[in-house]
Every structure is written in C-alpha cells, then in structure tokens.
Write a structure and sequence with these properties.
- The complex is a heterotrimer of chains A (433), B (283) and C (379).
- Chain A is mostly helical.
- Chain A folds into 3 domains: 69 residues, no CATH class; 108 residues, no CATH class; 221 residues, MetI-like (MetI-like fold, Orthogonal Bundle), CATH 1.10.3720.
- A two-stranded antiparallel sheet of chain A has the order 1-2.
- The longest helix of chain A has 41 residues.
- Chain B is mainly alpha-helical and 283 residues long.
- Chain B has a domain of 168 residues: MetI-like fold.
- Chain B is 76% helix and 0% strand.
- Chain B is globular.
- Chain B starts with 8 loop residues before the first helix and ends in a 6-residue tail after the last helix.
- By secondary structure, chain C is α/β, with parallel strands linked by helices.
- In chain C, 38% of the residues lie in helices and 16% in strands.
- Chain C has 14 helices and 10 strands.
- In chain C, strands 1, 2, 3, 4, 5, 6, 7, 8, 9 and 10 form a 10-stranded mixed β-sheet that branches.
- In chain C, helix 2 links the parallel strand 1 and strand 2.
- In chain C, helix 3 runs parallel beside helix 4 and helix 7 packs across helix 9.
- Chain C is globular, with a radius of gyration of 21 Å.
- The two termini of chain C are 38 Å apart.
- The chains are: A mainly alpha (433), B mainly alpha (283), C alpha/beta (379).
- Chain A: This is Putative spermidine/putrescine transport system permease protein.
- Chain A: InterPro entries: MetI-like, MetI-like_sf.
- Chain A: It is a multi-pass membrane protein.
- Chain A: Keywords: Cell membrane, Membrane, Transmembrane, Transmembrane helix, Transport.
- Chain A: Belongs to the binding-protein-dependent transport system permease family. CysTW subfamily.
Chain lengths: 433, 283, 379
C-alpha cells in the first residue's frame, strides 16, 4: 500500500504516461496499477498468514528460544552473592584461599540469602559442578551465621563452620561460575568441563554424552537403513501393481501409519518379551529351548525392531510417490536393448529412484534421532537415545541448564538435516498419506 | 510387473521370491497391530496366548478388559480429556492454518520460504525438544499444567499438517473460479465460503484429521505440560506400559486401532472426492 | 533411627487388639476458621495412595465435608513444583514425597518449613511431636508418615539353585550359586552401597569409601560381575511384574510391593530382608500457598499425622508408621486379616541386618555419581 501511494506522488510517472504509456481503464498507468494491486495482494496474503505466524511464534518458537536461552543462563550466582562475586574478582586461586574481605562480603551475602532461604538453591546449582557444594551451603545456615562474632576475623569462623570454606575449591567454583552467562552447560553436554584453569575434557570413565550422541546417530542410521531395505521392495511392488491391488496393499502400509505410536510400541512389547508371543512360537516350533528364550527387548534389538516398524511407512510413502513417476517403459527399453534384469534395474531404474531414497531416508532419520517414547519403553539401558537423557535431566535430576544444552545440540543437528532435506526435496513437496 | 510368458526359470524363481519377500514385509507391518486384538480378549491378566485361547475355548476369552476400560473412572476421565483437548486443538490449528495456507498459496506472500520453514518447524523439531522448550517457557508464563496450555501446544504441533495438506489441495485449485465469482459480484467472504471452501474442503478435513490424530496420539508434550487434570489416553497408556502391561491397555489399543481404521477410510473417501472435484482421474 | 524403629515394631507385635479409639471423635475435631473447602493432594497412586485415602482423607472428608482431589504425580513432584513456583501458580496443597526429595524441595525453597511441635498433634500420652517422631525428622520441611525399605524378593521355584535360597545380600552378586537374571534399580543409590558391602567394606565405612575415586571404582567393579545378568528397573512395579512373569529370579523393590505380590497375589516369591535399606516417605507443604488453602492443609496435616491415623494406615499396607506412639496400635490387615507386624521392615526378625541410607551424603554426590553410573551403564 505504502509503495503504491509513494509512486502516486511521483510526477514524472504521470508525465510519461501522457507520452504514450499504457493506461489502465481508470486512467492510471497500467504499470502503477499493477504494482498497486500486487502490493494489495501481498498485504492480503500477509494478513491471512499473520494470525498463524504469530500463533506459532508465540506458542512454539518462543519456547524453543527460551530453551536456547536457558542453556547459557547462569544468573543465580551473581544474584545471590553479588558482593562476593565482586570481591573474588581480584583473587587468584593460585594464591591459596581468598583474603578476609572476601569472607566479609560472603558473610553479608549469605546473611541476606539465608533470610530469603535461597542459599540452598545456589548450593544445588553449584553442586552440578562440584560435589559437596550442596551440603556446604545447607550447613551455612542462618542459625550458624548469627553466632559469628563480627569483631573477630571471619575466615577462622567459617573454617570452624566447615573446613571446606578454608580450601580453595569452593571459592574457585564460585568464581568460575560467577558470570551471568556461561558455556558450562554446553561444555558438560560435550563431556568437557569448565575449571578455574580453563576448559578440559572430563575423565574417560565419566564421558557419557558424546557416546550417547554417537549411539543415537548410529542407531538412527541402522533404523534408516533397515527401513530402506524393507521399504524399497514394497514401494516397488506398490508402484508396479495394477491400481486396484496396489490400493488394497497400500492399506497395509497406511494402517500402521495411522495407528497410535503407543499401540504399536505395546504390540512390540507383547511380541518381543521373553514370555512373549514370538518366543512362545519359537519354543513351540522347537527352534529355541524353553531355557534359551531369546532376549529381544530392553536392549538395542528391541529399539531397532520397534522403531523400524514404526518409521517404515515414512520410508515407503516418499519412495512410492517417486517410483510412481518412473515410466515402466524405461526398464523394458533397457532390456530390449540387451541389458540383463540386474543391469536394467541398477543402471536405469535405481538412479531415478534416488530422490525418493533421499527424501525417505532423511525423513526417517530426522524422526528417529529425536525419538523418546519407544526407546524409553523397549530400549532398556543400551537402546536409549539422547532424548531419554534430556527427559531425565528435566524431571529427575532437575539440571535444566544441561537439559537445555543437550536439547540445543540435538536441535542444531536436526535443523542441519532439515536444511539438507529442503535442498534435496523441497519442503513444499512433503506429501502425507 | 506381470510375469512375461517368455520369462526364464531364473526370472520365474526371482519373481515369486520377490513376491514372498514383499508379503513378509507387509506381514511385518500389519502383524503387530493384528496380534493385539485377540489378546485384548484374554480372560486372564496375561499378554500372551493361554493354552485355552489356542484351543479356542469360549471361557478363555472375555470382555473383562473392555469392561475395565468403560467402568474405570481413571480411563474414562482420560478418554474425556482426550476428547476435549484434541477437538479444541484441531479447531485452532485448522482455522488459523487454512487461512494461512490460502495466503501462502497466493504466490504473493513476502518471505515465503522463511515463513513456511517456521510454520513447518513443529513437525521437524524432535518432540522432546518441543516438550522441553514448552515446559520451560509455559512454566514462566503460568500455562504449564493447564488445559489451555496443552491445547495451545497441541495446536502448534498440528499446524504443519494443516498447512501441508491444504496448500497441496490449493496447488490444483483453479484461480479463475474466484475471479469469476468476483466478476459476478460476490464479495471476498462470500467467494471464500461459496466457491473456494467447498473445493478445498477435502484438504481442510484431511488436514484436520491429521491435526486431530497428532493431538489424540501425542504423549511426549502432554507428559511434561499436563497435570493430573489433563491426563489423556496416551498418557495413561504410557505410564501403564512403563509400569506393567495390563491387558486393559491392549483393550484400549484395540479401540484406538478401530478409530484409525475409521480415519483411514474417511481419508480415502475424501481423497477420491477431491480428485473427482478437481477433474483428475481417480487413481 | 533403626534402633527406634525396632523398638516401635517390637510393640507392634503384641498389638493385635485395637488399643485406643480415634484420637478425635467427630465433634472433637477443632473447627477450621477461614479454610478453603477443597484440597489437591499429590501421592504415588496404587495401593499406597489407597491406604492414605482409607486412613486419612476419607475420615477427614466425612467430618469436614472437604473435597479431595488426588494427583498421582509424586514421581515428578520436584520438577513440577519447581515449574509451578516459576510460574507463581501453585496448584498443589499437600505433596507426598520420599525424604530425599523433601530435602531437595527444602533446599530449593519450594517447601514450607514446619514448626513440628505447634503444627502436629501430640501423642496420646502428651509427648510432643518432635520427640514422638524422633530421628525420623530429617528435614525442616518434611513430616514423615511411614518407614519403608528397599529390599529383595526372589522366586522360590528356581530349579538351578538346588534347593538353596538367598539369605545374604552378597548372594545377589553370586552368579554361581544363584544363576539367573536380577532386577536392580537404574540409579546408583543403594546399588553402590550393596556392592561395597559385598566387596568387603565395613558398613560404617561405606560412605567414606564411596567418596573416593578408588571406592567408586571398587563398587563398579563389583557391579561389573553381574552387569550382564541385570535388568534395570525405573518404576517400583516392574520388579514384582518381572518376578511374577519369571523374567527374573530375584530383584530389588519396595517391601510393600513384595508384600502384595506374596500375600495378596500368592506368587511363589519370598522376601530376603538382609541389608534392606530404610527410607522415609511423608508430606511436604508447597511454599507460598494462599492463606485459606494453607490453613486447610495445616488443619488436615495435624489430623492425618496423629498417632491413630498413622497406625490405621498400616492396616492397608506393610509400611511402618513414623510415630513411636503408633507402633502399639498396629493391628491386622484390613482385608486379609493377617498380622501386619511380621511383614513390617522394622520387625526385629527382618531387621537383623539393616542399612541406613545417608540423605545428606547423597544430596551432595547424587549429580556426580549419577553421571558416573550412566557412563558405567554405557560401557
């Protein structure tokens, strides 16, 4: 709109229109008229999209942004111990325990904090970094602080309260985590840690997140691959059968697609248990003995089988829609030119189905990598994903900063794949059902 | 695909092996869903076939677990919650989503790519991340543990499906129809409801079905965002499954499978109708 | 704690007869001025919540007409309370949690501190609450209800054991004498202590040992011996289910769950009480409740934690009441009609070798050891 009015004010335009330029019915130059209606159409389109855009921004994008923020946010230390943080600024952990003014500042801060009962919360926060901080802060309570003799040096009295206050470590931890924003959670999420001396790798036997990320990726790859192996023949069959029988078989693909995830997961639990249907059948046939029942659940096997089943339709459908467009005459032509069945397939058909493979594989991989429910129910200990750890940190360990950092890393991974998907398939070409 | 009369023995063998292979894969797809149906009628609280069931004895089967579902207050409350949350979320995402899809398909939308990416993102971002973000953010603004908060979250998750299905329908939409309506003097609102809407209705309904099933099946977000008052069917199934498989879960599962069959049939009918309306051949 | 528990339970053994009537008759319950007329109580669901409803909330509702809403969210109570506090919108009035969660809630400022002597009822003989609860009071915010224990159940029909039954905690680690799968909880707490006990560390040195890297390595080395035969559980109902299905031959869980499996469902399972780990369960009041709701909660709390009410709960579930004065009132199971005392974790016969769970220590080392435990599981 604004653009149109601006144009209307420009005199040379009208002048030139008089000198033989095309005019619209109402006498305005056609170019301007078109531009005006274009602008109106653009505004109309935008107004139609705006309510949903605002809705999604508020209900979905804002939470994601909040999570990203939480992964670096660390205001609690500076908010609870403002004077101490300032006093520690000049202190160097190499020189031994901090000087008396730090203890003074700490005393004042803690007196306020204990009155508000927020000192223990800080203890829980710092305990993520150094074991023992929790009880150290809990012990340093109002009752004990009020007994301090302020005319005497405070350091010995703090040491008296707990000898750890006379050590370097607790102060070094406070100093290291004093800034309002920290990379500490991200470092933890990558099995590193922030120490007073800088960033270092966690000891070998404590590394877990890189391994978990790696396992998540590896299992997702395995699941994608098995979906491809099972999905390709089915998609081929569906796209080469006459419409009537293809539609009938399609129901077998679509019914699982439409069935609740939990229904399918519970079905696999029923099937795969040691006392479950599959083991019963195997024992009945005599393939395995009653004592030698196969362990197929609560491990990686369970996760791979159940998730392959759950994600298979997401592989078959894109493959099918691509294969549908490959004319069967190409194969016949190749064969009549002397190609064997295999060459005709491998050199002629397969290359044309690659876009479908790309689309299906990335879709399955993106979905697999963020799975939570199925691994939680059938994954045991070695079939769980990084998502399960995120959930653990949200609801059990309460280390929300670390959960947010792990989530952010996973998000970056998925968005990278999404970008790839958009490049290969185009997000407009996603088809459902 | 049909076997040629002049096919060699090797080709014949391969042809039948391939068919058997495909049959096995399709069996793998459908078998787990079929198997829970007879098991849900087990008279005993086990989830494997009892000898009595295999011998087809009548008293080895019972409707007890269905009775449990229909008479248990907790399950009924969960069913009721599911039936109140899913339609509300669907209504929200369908009404906003349809308007937006029309805007997006007009070809005049500025920054279309970015906007599209944002609107599709709830489908791409892993649920655990959405759940974590919503849990943190909704806690800050007081929506955590409320019915409204859950509806908002589920509506956001359903949006991409509405956008995708409705824009897909609009690709085949003949724009000269709206222009013709405008020519004959219909206002934009009238044009929308009398001309455009009936034609894209199948797309809107199938988008709505997707949005509905997204909310109706959703378990990750509700686990974090809901409180006991918003316990839905999937939530109860999840906690039940994590603790122990009680056969009443299988009864619920069977009921849910019937729901998906109904949805599947509805969708198929809609697809045919839509293709007929748009003058395409009915596949 | 264990000594007092033993004393309490020694009393429970002889208390078949209902000794005293209710502490309050209906008209004696003091009126509640300016109190809300409904409350949301959070608990664990299942048999345990049921016992609370029977013993506490149903009689209370009858007397006062207060409406109770139950929420089965105790498992996620800490996380949800934190989320509610951030939003400034506390929807819960009273929350049932285990002691370690209560300490954490208290640390985070999410639970109200309670003045035990003024807020809780005296024992029938006039003993003040702090003395009646005694060492059960482990946090300023936590009103204990029951003592329970985490212990082992095993199947009694395992052919490979040649008639032997496990009666020592170290039998759990002995795959030669007792082959078969075991279920252990998927967290370091309890497992680390048992592992150290069975690798020769004295009971009183456990936590000092566990504080050192070598001690942790020693515990993991012991757990390594059975790692391949362990099914890890995360919900208390899993072990009973796995035992009943024969998927495992022994497993740890809460003693009340095993009681239900053995006495109510009559499964071929028996208890092994050796090195059982005591823990407490009780109430916390969320911090920052509005006046009228808080008044109602405190009114209910005083009623629900009096001597008679705690004793009543033991009729429905095999957990020991937290008040010493309740012990003599514990009687028979409400439906089965069997004496409850022999099934209590605190029964002298069961409590010959018990283990005390160190809350303070775990509050400090939980984050660190949990990461190490997960890393160990991944190896």
């Amino acid at each position: 709109m604004a653009e149109a009015t601006a144009n209307g004010d420009i005199a040379p335009d009208e002048h030139r229109s008089a000198s033989g330029q095309l005019l619209a019915a109402d006498g305005t130059p056609l170019k301007k008229s078109i531009r005006r209606s274009e602008a109106r159409a653009r505004l109309r389109a935008f107004l139609l999209v705006a309510p949903l855009l605002i809705f999604v921004l508020l209900s979905f994008i804002a939470p994601i942004a909040d999570m990203l923020f939480r992964s670096v946010e660390n205001e609690i230390v500076a908010d609870t111990l403002p004077r101490t943080v300032e006093a520690l600024d000049a202190w160097d952990p190499q020189t031994g325990p901090p000087p008396e003014p730090v203890y003074r500042a700490f005393y004042d801060d803690m007196l306020e904090a204990t009155e508000l009962k927020i000192h223990t919360r800080l203890g829980s926060r710092l305990n993520y970094e150094e074991s023992g901080m929790s009880s150290l802060f809990r012990k340093t309570n109002e009752r004990r602080l009020e007994r301090f003799d302020l005319d005497q040096p405070l350091q010995p009295q703090f040491v008296d309260l707990d000898k750890d206050w006379g050590e370097v470590e607790p102060w070094a931890v406070i100093k290291t985590f004093a800034p309002r924003y920290t990379w500490g959670y991200f470092l933890q999420a990558a099995d590193m840690r922030l120490t007073p001396g800088g960033v270092e790798m966690a000891p070998e036997f404590e590394q877990i997140y890189l391994k978990l990320f790696w396992r998540t990726i590896l299992l997702s790859c395995t699941i994608t691959l098995s979906c491809l192996l099972l999905g390709y023949p089915v998609a081929w069959l569906l796209s080469n059968l006459p419409a009537r029988s293809a539609n009938l078989l399609m129901i077998l693909v679509l019914l699982p697609f439409w069935t609740s995830l939990l229904v399918r997961t519970s079905a696999w639990k029923v099937l795969l248990q040691e006392q479950g249907v599959i083991n019963d059948i195997l024992v009945y046939i005599g393939i395995v003995s009653d004592a030698g029942r196969l362990v197929m659940i609560n491990n990686q096997t369970g996760t791979i089988i159940a998730m392959t089943h759950i994600l298979l339709p997401f592989m078959v459908l894109p493959l099918y829609s691509v294969m549908k467009t490959i004319p069967p005459s190409y194969l016949r032509a190749a064969k009549s030119l002397g190609a064997t069945d295999w060459t005709a397939f491998w050199r002629v058909y397969f290359p044309q189905s690659v876009p479908g493979i790309g689309a299906g594989a990335i879709l399955v991989f993106i979905l697999a990598i963020g799975y939570y429910i199925t691994p939680e129910l059938v994954g045991g200990t070695d079939g769980t994903f990084i998502s399960n750890r995120i959930a653990f940190h949200i609801s059990t360990s309460l280390n929300w900063g670390l959960a947010a950092a792990l989530g952010s890393l996973l998000l970056i991974l998925v968005l990278g794949l999404y970008w790839l998907y958009d490049r290969i398939v185009g997000i407009d070409n996603v088809k459902l059902g | 695909m049909a076997l040629q009369p002049y096919a060699s023995t090797g080709q014949r063998i391969w042809y039948y092996t391939f068919r058997v292979l495909c049959g096995l894969i399709l069996f793998f797809l459908i078998f787990p869903i079929i198997i829970i149906i007879p098991l849900s009628f087990n008279a005993l609280p086990y989830f494997t076939f009892t000898p009595g069931m295999l011998a087809l004895e009548a008293d080895a089967y019972s409707l007890e677990h269905y009775r449990d579902f229909f008479y248990n207050d907790a399950w009924q409350q969960a069913l009721w919650n599911s039936l109140s949350i899913a339609p509300a979320a669907t209504l929200l995402s369908v009404s906003l989503g349809t308007l937006a899809a029309i805007g997006l398909s007009s070809g005049k939308m500025p920054f279309r790519g970015v906007v599209m990416a944002i609107l599709i993102s709830p489908m791409i971002v892993p649920l655990i991340i959405s759940a974590a973000g919503m849990y943190f953010f909704y806690s800050r603004i007081g929506l955590q543990g409320t019915w409204f908060g859950v509806v908002l979250a589920h509506a956001a998750l359903g949006v991409p499906f509405v956008i995708i299905t409705v824009t897909a329908t609009l690709v085949g939409f003949d724009r000269s129809l709206t222009r013709a309506a405008a020519n004959m003097g219909a206002g934009p609102v009238r044009t929308f409801f009398k001309v455009q809407m009936p034609l894209i209705l199948p797309g809107v309904i199938s988008g709505g079905l997707f949005a509905f099933i997204t909310s109706f099946d959703e378990v990750v977000v509700i686990l974090f965002l809901g409180s006991a008052g918003e316990q839905t069917l999937p939530w109860r199934m999840f906690t039940g499954l994590r603790e122990q498989i009680s056969p009443s879960i299988l009864a619920v599962a069977t009921l849910l499978v019937s729901v998906s069959v109904i949805l599947l049939v509805t969708l198929e009918i809609l697809r045919r109708r839509s293709e007929r309306l748009r003058g395409m051949s009915p596949g | 704690m264990s000594l007092k528990l033993k004393m309490m339970m020694a009393g429970a053994g002889i208390a078949g007869a209902a000794v005293a009537g209710a502490a309050y008759a209906a008209d004696e319950l003091p009126a509640c001025e300016g109190c809300a007329d409904s409350m949301t109580v959070v608990s664990w669901g299942g048999a345990y919540q049921n016992s609370q409803q029977k013993a506490y909330s149903e009689p209370y509702a009858e007397m006062t007409g207060v409406e109770f809403v139950w929420d089965e969210s105790s498992n996620e109570a800490v996380a949800k309370l934190r989320a509610m506090a951030e939003a400034g919108n506390i929807t819960w009035d009273l929350v049932d949690v285990v002691a370690s969660d209560a300490m954490r809630l208290c640390d985070e400022g999410l639970a109200e501190e309670i003045d035990f002597d003024s807020a809780l009822a005296e024992a029938p003989d006039g003993t003040v609450a702090t003395e009646d609860f005694g060492e059960m009071i482990v946090s300023d915010c936590f009103v204990p209800q029951i003592a329970y224990s985490t212990t082992f159940g095993y199947r009694t029909d395992v052919a490979e054991w040649n008639g032997e039954t496990p009666d020592d905690i170290c039998d759990v680690f002995d795959l030669e004498a007792f082959p078969g799968k075991r279920a252990l909880e998927k967290r370091p707490i309890n497992n680390m202590e048992w592992a150290l006990l069975c690798s020769g560390v004295a009971k009183e040195d456990i936590y000092d040992t566990l504080e050192t890297e070598e001690g942790q390595a020693q515990a993991f080395a012991k757990l390594d011996e059975i790692k391949d035969s362990v099914v890890w559980w995360s919900a208390g109902a899993e072990t009973p289910q796995l035992l009943a299905d024969g998927e495992i031959v022994m497993g740890s869980t809460y003693n009340g769950r095993l009681f239900a499996l053995i006495e109510e469902q009559k499964q071929p399972v028996a208890m092994m009480w050796d090195a059982q780990v005591y823990d407490l369960d009780g109430w916390i009041v969320p911090a920052g409740l509005p006046e009228d709701r808080k008044a109602r909660v405190m009114h209910f709390l005083k009623f629900a934690t009096d001597t008679q009410r705690l004793a009543d709960q033991a009729k429905y579930i095999s957990y020991g009441p937290a008040r010493q004065s309740s012990a003599p009132l514990v009687g028979q199971h409400a439906e089965l009609g069997i004496d409850m005392a022999p099934h209590m974790p605190t029964n002298p016969e069961n409590a010959t070798n018990t283990f005390l769970y160190n809350y303070e220590w775990w509050a400090d080392y939980r984050d660190d050891l949990d990461a190490k435990f997960q890393a160990w599981l991944l190896r």
